[in-house]
């Protein structure tokens, strides 16, 4: 896999923005970026020089031995443009899972005992609609695949395994279900059918589709959870949360949507994610949007006990 500087430059600018926002008088640690993206110190410095030559980043806030990266006006403009053009987060999550599963499988076919999932970051295989998947998205995808039994590996303090290997189930998914975890999860299952109507104001996560029919085997009506996920996806950026907390809330909404629209939604997992969302909304204070979200979360949780 070829790891391209131009892709890492894109990821570097977006990563700095996550750390310091639009503050051009602060910098983020280059070493931290290198560790998160599996880059050597030498390659990281070359990347910084490349980014400076492109005009998107600077190093003015660094100290000897501790280089930092800051955004220039051009870099900030590029980041904001990138974020406007990104595919919906659900689509990116699904693409990340397919990419990770395929890479772990390919490495296994090549005779490698372990596949290093971070090595996928910065490669053409980890692009969605022309934009790179971040190390965080790849790690999250690896965690999802491990949770579904498609790959195996030691997770440690991370969400997903850095070193992974394909399982029998993952092999079956690649060979018979085109490497699509969603298709594999829904194989041969029949169950109750749920028709869910989503009002426009709550259809953000689902996208253009405002109605969906689901056939699942868990005996769980997911309607309230899907509506909660869509609502939270709509309001997450309006609650006045810190950027990291806002992203965490959006991620939880994405996960709740994925779980509740799967062919076999797990009640325990839905409860866990909904509790996380409720906690975040409580932290947001007593705004009307947060209060409505908390009520929706409580109503959704109540359906699990009925």
Provide the number of structural domains. 3
Instruction: Enumerate how many helices there are, as a single number.
Output: 12
Helix content: 40-55%
In terms of quaternary structure, the protein is single chain
Mean pLDDT: 82
Molecular shape:
flat
Q: Looking across the biggest beta sheet, what order are the strands in?
A: 1-3-2
Secondary structure: number of strands: 10
One letter per element, helices H and strands E, the order comes to HEHHEEHHEEEHEEHHEEHHHH
Largest sheet: 3 strands, antiparallel
* Poorly predicted parts: 190-218
Structural class: mainly alpha
Q: Rg, please?
A: 20 Å
Percent range for β-strand residues: 5-15%
Ends distance: 50 Å
Detailed description of the structure:
The structure is a single chain. Helices cover 53% and strands 10% of the residues. The chain has 306 residues and is mainly alpha-helical. Strands 1-3-2 form a three-stranded antiparallel β-sheet. Strands 4-8-7 form a three-stranded antiparallel β-sheet. A two-stranded antiparallel ribbon has the order 5-6.
Question: What descriptive keywords fit this protein?
Answer:
three-stranded antiparallel sheet, 10% strand, single chain, 306 residues, mainly alpha, 3 domains, Arc Repressor Mutant, subunit A, flat, 53% helix
């Amino acid at each position: 896999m070829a790891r391209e500087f131009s892709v890492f430059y894109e990821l570097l600018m977006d990563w700095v923005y996550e750390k310091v926002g639009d503050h051009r008088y602060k910098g983020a640690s280059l070493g931290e970026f290198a560790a998160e993206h599996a880059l050597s110190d030498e390659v990281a410095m070359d990347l910084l020089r490349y980014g400076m030559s492109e005009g998107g980043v600077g190093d003015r806030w660094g100290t000897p031995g501790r280089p930092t990266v800051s955004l220039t006006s051009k870099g900030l403009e590029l980041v904001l443009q990138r974020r406007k053009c990104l595919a919906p987060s659900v689509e990116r999550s699904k693409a990340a899972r397919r990419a990770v599963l395929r890479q772990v499988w390919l490495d296994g076919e090549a005779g490698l005992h372990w596949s290093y999932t971070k090595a996928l970051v910065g490669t053409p295989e980890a692009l969605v609609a022309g934009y790179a998947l971040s190390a965080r998205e790849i790690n999250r995808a690896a965690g999802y695949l491990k949770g579904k039994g498609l790959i195996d590996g030691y997770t440690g303090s991370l969400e997903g395994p850095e070193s992974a290997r394909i399982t029998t189930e993952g092999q079956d998914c690649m060979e018979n279900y085109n490497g699509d975890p969603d298709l594999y999860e829904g194989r041969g299952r029949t169950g109750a059918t749920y028709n869910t109507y989503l009002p426009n104001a709550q259809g953000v996560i689902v996208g253009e589709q405002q109605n969906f029919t689901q056939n699942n085997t868990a005996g769980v009506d997911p309607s309230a959870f899907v509506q909660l996920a869509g609502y939270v996806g709509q309001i997450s950026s309006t609650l006045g949360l810190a950027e990291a907390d806002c992203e965490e809330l959006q991620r939880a909404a994405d996960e709740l949507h994925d779980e509740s629209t799967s062919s076999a939604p797990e009640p325990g997992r839905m409860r866990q994610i909904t509790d996380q969302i409720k906690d975040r909304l409580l932290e947001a204070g007593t705004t009307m949007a947060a209060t409505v979200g908390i009520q929706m979360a409580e109503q959704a949780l109540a359906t699990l006990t009925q």
